[in-house]
Design a protein that fits this description.
With 220 residues, this protein is an alpha/beta fold. It has two domains: 6-81, Orthogonal Bundle (Arc Repressor Mutant, subunit A), CATH 1.10.10; 87-198, Rossmann fold (3-Layer(aba) Sandwich). It has eight helices and ten strands. It has helices at 11-29, 37-44, 48-56, 70-81, 96-104, 140-146, 158-170, 197-210, and strands spanning 34-35, 62-63, 67-69, 87-92, 112-119, 128-129, 132-136, 149-154, 175-178, 191-194. The strands form two sheets. Strands 6-7-5-4-8-9-10 form a seven-stranded mixed β-sheet, sandwiched between helices. The radius of gyration is 20 Å and the shape is elongated. It starts with 10 loop residues before the first helix and ends in a 10-residue tail after the last helix. Its main location: cytoplasm. It is found in: Cytoplasm. Residues 19-58 bind DNA.
Amino acid sequence: MERYNKKKIPRATAKRLPLYLRNLTILDAKGVVRIKSKELAEITQVPSATIRRDFSYLGELGRSGYGYDVTFLIKVFSDILDSNETSHMAIVGFGNLGKALANNNFRRNQNLIISCVFDTDPEIIGQTIAGFYVYSMEDFERVTREKNVKVAISTVPSEHAQEAIDTVVNSGITAILNFAPDRVEVPSNINMRYIDLTTELLTLLFFDRNYKDTPLAITS
């Protein structure tokens, strides 16, 4: 497989690659062999011109009139995203959302592994819940280093998010997924993504009420 210069891929394009991979994997499971940019645009709700431009950064991925080979695209995007490389993750905050994420344990990609969970509640620290031993945040740096954790997923409410994220950052982890909608302060070398469930639900409801003929793509 050709190795790509990932630094030359525009950030906007890079953000869409997981969306393409997710939907292509679904198509492959359904037995779809090839697809054209227009068809992929209908599924992902990304304009076909944008798709073709995104793909052009990665070389010659398709043929005019034929479209794109689904299996080949999956290999290309998997290689670029390192989706076949094992990534160990930690959950910070083991409330209802944390438990739901741990129970799901990213079944769609067996290389994404939740290795440890943390909380500040003394009633659950030291307990094994849903198959996970709950560590104290005081042990965060030691445990995550021992388990080679590279990604932290924070489900801590906004009022306590900054303190939790500070602990994560001080441990040396630079990739953080934050489910608290309020922004927190982090150094410039930290890659932080926010997921605001309220905003996502409002967006979903808006499209359901007003754009029933063009539904949103499934992106997660």
